[in-house]
Amino acid sequence: MDTVIVYLDDADYARTQLAPDAAAPTHWVLVACAPRMTRRISKWVSHSARENWRGKWADRLFEQVGPLLQLAGHQVTLVLAKAPLPELTRELQAVHTGARVVDLRRPRGSQAGGWEVPGKLLGLGAAFAFMAD
Protein backbone atom coordinates (compact mmCIF):
# COMPACT_ATOMS: atom_id res chain seq x y z
CA MET A 1 0.00 0.00 0.00
CA ASP A 2 1.34 3.41 -0.99
CA THR A 3 1.66 5.96 1.85
CA VAL A 4 1.33 9.72 1.37
CA ILE A 5 1.99 12.31 4.10
CA VAL A 6 -0.04 15.46 3.40
CA TYR A 7 0.40 18.80 5.18
CA LEU A 8 -2.85 20.80 5.36
CA ASP A 9 -3.92 24.16 6.73
CA ASP A 10 -7.03 24.98 4.66
CA ALA A 11 -9.72 22.42 3.86
CA ASP A 12 -11.11 24.20 0.78
CA TYR A 13 -7.69 24.59 -0.81
CA ALA A 14 -6.73 21.00 0.03
CA ARG A 15 -9.93 19.58 -1.50
CA THR A 16 -9.25 21.39 -4.78
CA GLN A 17 -5.68 20.06 -4.90
CA LEU A 18 -6.30 16.56 -3.57
CA ALA A 19 -7.43 14.01 -6.12
CA PRO A 20 -7.51 10.54 -4.55
CA ASP A 21 -7.10 7.67 -7.00
CA ALA A 22 -9.89 5.20 -6.28
CA ALA A 23 -8.10 2.37 -8.10
CA ALA A 24 -4.97 2.23 -5.91
CA PRO A 25 -5.43 1.79 -2.15
CA THR A 26 -3.46 4.46 -0.34
CA HIS A 27 -2.68 5.22 3.28
CA TRP A 28 -3.08 8.99 3.73
CA VAL A 29 -1.40 10.58 6.74
CA LEU A 30 -3.12 13.96 7.08
CA VAL A 31 -1.09 16.45 9.12
CA ALA A 32 -2.95 19.56 10.31
CA CYS A 33 -0.72 22.65 10.44
CA ALA A 34 -2.60 25.14 12.60
CA PRO A 35 -2.11 28.86 11.95
CA ARG A 36 0.55 30.53 14.06
CA MET A 37 -0.56 32.69 16.94
CA THR A 38 1.16 35.95 17.65
CA ARG A 39 3.66 36.19 20.47
CA ARG A 40 1.39 38.61 22.28
CA ILE A 41 -1.44 36.07 22.55
CA SER A 42 0.41 34.34 25.41
CA LYS A 43 -0.34 37.39 27.52
CA TRP A 44 -4.07 36.66 27.33
CA VAL A 45 -4.40 32.93 26.70
CA SER A 46 -2.92 30.03 28.65
CA HIS A 47 -0.89 27.27 27.00
CA SER A 48 -3.63 24.70 27.63
CA ALA A 49 -6.25 26.99 26.05
CA ARG A 50 -4.04 27.42 22.96
CA GLU A 51 -3.56 23.64 22.67
CA ASN A 52 -7.31 23.14 23.10
CA TRP A 53 -8.00 25.64 20.31
CA ARG A 54 -5.44 23.91 18.04
CA GLY A 55 -7.13 20.56 18.68
CA LYS A 56 -10.58 21.89 17.83
CA TRP A 57 -9.22 23.64 14.74
CA ALA A 58 -7.61 20.39 13.55
CA ASP A 59 -10.82 18.42 14.19
CA ARG A 60 -12.79 20.83 11.96
CA LEU A 61 -10.14 20.52 9.23
CA PHE A 62 -10.13 16.72 9.41
CA GLU A 63 -13.95 16.59 9.31
CA GLN A 64 -13.87 18.42 5.98
CA VAL A 65 -11.03 16.49 4.31
CA GLY A 66 -10.96 13.01 5.89
CA PRO A 67 -14.33 11.73 4.65
CA LEU A 68 -13.38 12.56 1.05
CA LEU A 69 -10.55 10.03 1.27
CA GLN A 70 -12.40 7.47 3.38
CA LEU A 71 -15.33 7.35 0.94
CA ALA A 72 -12.86 6.45 -1.81
CA GLY A 73 -11.79 3.45 0.30
CA HIS A 74 -8.44 4.74 1.49
CA GLN A 75 -6.94 4.40 4.96
CA VAL A 76 -6.58 7.75 6.77
CA THR A 77 -4.42 8.63 9.77
CA LEU A 78 -4.85 12.05 11.41
CA VAL A 79 -1.93 13.95 12.98
CA LEU A 80 -1.78 17.41 14.55
CA ALA A 81 1.59 19.07 13.94
CA LYS A 82 3.11 20.11 17.25
CA ALA A 83 6.80 19.93 16.30
CA PRO A 84 8.63 21.84 13.55
CA LEU A 85 7.75 20.32 10.17
CA PRO A 86 11.25 19.06 9.24
CA GLU A 87 11.45 17.17 12.54
CA LEU A 88 7.89 15.87 12.21
CA THR A 89 8.59 14.76 8.64
CA ARG A 90 11.61 12.73 9.77
CA GLU A 91 9.52 11.09 12.51
CA LEU A 92 6.66 10.24 10.14
CA GLN A 93 8.98 8.90 7.47
CA ALA A 94 10.68 6.71 10.08
CA VAL A 95 7.29 5.20 10.93
CA HIS A 96 6.00 5.09 7.33
CA THR A 97 9.05 3.98 5.36
CA GLY A 98 9.00 5.09 1.72
CA ALA A 99 6.15 7.58 2.21
CA ARG A 100 5.81 10.50 -0.19
CA VAL A 101 5.38 13.98 1.30
CA VAL A 102 2.92 16.44 -0.23
CA ASP A 103 2.55 20.03 0.98
CA LEU A 104 -1.03 21.20 0.39
CA ARG A 105 -0.87 24.21 2.68
CA ARG A 106 -2.38 27.34 1.14
CA PRO A 107 0.38 29.48 -0.39
CA ARG A 108 0.95 32.80 1.35
CA GLY A 109 0.48 36.07 -0.50
CA SER A 110 -1.36 36.89 -3.68
CA GLN A 111 -1.92 34.08 -6.14
CA ALA A 112 -3.33 36.22 -8.95
CA GLY A 113 -0.78 34.79 -11.35
CA GLY A 114 0.26 38.22 -12.55
CA TRP A 115 3.58 39.97 -12.21
CA GLU A 116 4.04 41.57 -8.81
CA VAL A 117 6.31 44.48 -7.98
CA PRO A 118 7.77 44.28 -4.47
CA GLY A 119 6.85 47.23 -2.26
CA LYS A 120 10.44 48.41 -1.75
CA LEU A 121 11.08 48.43 -5.50
CA LEU A 122 7.85 50.32 -6.13
CA GLY A 123 8.79 52.87 -3.43
CA LEU A 124 12.26 53.29 -4.90
CA GLY A 125 10.78 53.87 -8.36
CA ALA A 126 8.38 56.47 -6.95
CA ALA A 127 11.27 58.24 -5.21
CA PHE A 128 13.28 58.40 -8.45
CA ALA A 129 10.24 59.70 -10.33
CA PHE A 130 9.71 62.37 -7.65
CA MET A 131 13.37 63.43 -7.78
CA ALA A 132 13.28 63.60 -11.58
CA ASP A 133 10.51 66.22 -11.48
Count of helical stretches: 4
Can you tell me the CATH topology? Rossmann fold
Helical fraction equals: 40-55%
Which class in CATH terms?
A: Alpha Beta
Mean pLDDT: 82
The outline comes out as extended
Count all strands and give the number. 4
Total domain units? 1
Brief rundown of the structure:
The protein has 133 residues and is α/β, with parallel strands linked by helices. It is built from four helices and four strands.
Verbal overview:
- The protein is extended, with a radius of gyration of 20 Å.
- It contains four helices and four strands, in the order βαβαβαβα.
- The chain has a single domain, classed as Rossmann fold, CATH 3.40.50.
- The chain is α/β, with parallel strands linked by helices and 133 residues long.
- Strand 2, helix 2 and strand 3 form a beta-alpha-beta unit.
- Helix 1 runs parallel beside helix 2.
- The protein has a four-stranded parallel β-sheet, sandwiched between helices.
- The model has no long low-confidence stretch (mean pLDDT 82).
Structural features:
133 residues; Rossmann fold; alpha/beta
List the helices and strands and how they pair.
Elements (H helix, E strand, L loop, with lengths): L1 E7 L2 H7 L8 E7 L14 H25 L3 E6 L4 H11 L4 E4 L15 H14 L1
Parallel strand pairs: 1-2, 1-4, 2-3
